[in-house]
Design goal:
alpha+beta; single chain; five-stranded mixed β-sheet
Length: 286
């Protein structure tokens, strides 16, 4: 019975079940024949283009307030390059798939670096995040601080973060070989499908990562609201771990902001409010 297992056994059981669930999920999606890009990052992780990636790793894109990227020849990219505010992640990935700039961008597994954002707030951060206006002057009943991507802007230095993750094109997977059940666990969150996502990719550096995922711990109440099945690991959710990450979060990055106005303009305020009911609320552990 689960109650009789020690912490190490519970953690091992958790990882074994997680990996098998992923494998069967990929098999199901592949069998349906209508899916392409699939990612297994967590609900407190937000995937965005890496605007700091070097040219041969960068998805062609511009961002308001930033200069257009230059090619390896030093010339500006075409004016038809989409801006961050007007492109979906699927469109970005399909542009990358068609790109000839690197094998990684056109391959079936695109790795991304992960940055962990702790609960550090300066006085300037607090004043700014208490406002209720967003891009384009859109006024709402939300506060900026309701959104993790707006409130938390300080992360651990990249080299002190853990393994990255990846997104895979399930339509290019060979289920009989890539997803075969065996003792080697063909899937895990950091290398979703090991046969196409290498160990080297899992530790991709910042400049080579075309995408980046921001991992937000949130407030201490949000961070500790649920039990962590990885009880015997040093990354387990504890109050001490939360405080340590906050202290280490010394690099500023607000690159995940800027989406609220585009979202509201896309679906309308009424739909946006319905979809974002409870945003920013803490949850209680059962």
């Amino acid at each position: 019975a689960w109650e009789k297992l020690d912490d190490a056994e519970k953690t091992a059981r958790f990882f074994s079940r997680q990996n098998e669930f992923m494998r069967k999920c990929f098999l199901q999606l592949h069998s349906e024949g209508k899916w392409t890009w699939v990612t297994t990052h967590d609900i407190d992780e937000y995937l965005i283009p890496n605007m700091q990636a070097k040219n041969d790793a960068a998805v062609p894109i511009t961002q308001a307030g930033l200069n257009a990227r230059t090619s390896s020849h030093g010339t500006a990219k075409s004016a038809t390059t989409p801006s961050l505010e007007r492109v979906t992640m699927m469109e970005l990935l399909n542009r990358a798939k068609q790109s000839s700039s690197s094998a990684m961008l056109s391959g079936p597994c695109i790795p991304f670096r992960r940055l962990t954002f702790g609960a550090r707030e300066t006085r300037v951060d607090t004043v700014w995040s208490n406002k209720s206006t967003f891009e384009d002057g859109i006024a709402t009943h939300w506060k900026r601080s309701d959104f993790a991507t707006y409130r938390w802007n300080w992360h651990i230095p990249p080299k002190k973060n853990g393994m990255g993750k990846a997104i895979v094109d399930i339509s290019r997977v060979r289920p009989d070989t890539d997803l075969k059940a065996n003792t080697e666990a063909p899937c895990n969150p950091h290398r979703p499908i090991k046969s196409i996502c290498s160990a080297q990719q899992a530790w991709i550096d910042d400049a080579s990562s075309p995408l980046v995922v921001h991992h937000y711990l949130g407030s201490k109440e949000q961070y500790l609201y649920r039990d962590d099945p990885r009880a015997n690991l040093k990354v387990a959710r504890t109050s001490q771990m939360f405080d340590e990450i906050a202290q280490k979060s010394k690099m500023h990055d607000s690159g995940a902001r800027g989406w609220v106005s585009g979202f509201v303009n896309s679906v309308g305020m009424a739909t946006a409010e319905a979809l974002l009911v409870g945003v920013g609320d803490a949850h209680e552990s059962e």
